Amino acid sequence: MASxxxxxxxxxxxxxxxxxxSSVRFKCVENCxxxxxxxxxPLRDEDIERIEDLGYNAWEFVDYEKSFYRGDKFLGYAIxxxxxxxxxxxxDPETKRCRIYRERPLACRLYPFVFVKHGETMEVYIRxxxxxxxxxxxxxxxxxxxxxxxxxxDIIREYQSKLGNVQKKR
Length: 170
What we know:
Helices cover about 30% and strands about 25% of the residues.
């Protein structure tokens, strides 16, 4: 299933000034769970550690057969799918709710948004996945600078702090 990405905004990591490039609305539709079925979710080391801290063993949720790369750089393994339902192992099949929602992987937290850092600029894209009913949902919230900083400000500030550390190392 093909997916297009649309550039929604850029964030200046020095000033946190947000420039909107295209109008889009988003609302996560409660009990949908389609992204938990349709997507292969990458796990960072930090994601694995947080989930293990909840009492799970990595072998229960890490799919060591599937891995993600950007070019030749290894990014991580995928989260396991339930062999019966083909859904994320943490998706409750009855309620369609995530069992580890507060500690879910970063990729889950960001979806359908994709953040790409280029120097002092963070590009924010939205995946135009046809299976996601929340993209351009009529009741969705318009994606503005305020929306991005409210929902993802901690992530953006984390990148901002890393930028400061890079400057200090020079």
